[in-house]
Amino acid sequence: MTKRIAVLGGDGIGPEVTAAAMQVLQVLNRQRPGTVELTDLPYGADYYRKHGYSTPENVLDEYRTYDAIFVGAVGDPTIADPNYAKDILLKMRFGLDLYINFRPCTLLDERLCPLKDKGIEDVQIVCFRENTEGAYAGIGGFLKRYTTDEVAIQEEISTYKGVERICRAACDWALKHGKSHVTMVDKSNVMTYSHDLWQRVWAQVAADYPQLNCDSMYMDAMCMQLVKNPERYEVIVTNNMFGDILTDLGAMLCGGLGLAQSANINPDGVSMFEPVHGSAPKYAGQNIANPLAAILTVQLLAEHLGFPAFASAVEDAVKASIKTGNTARDLFGGSLGTREVGQWIADYLADHYDPAAEPATAAAVA
Question: What is the pTM of this model?
Answer without folding.
Answer: 0.94
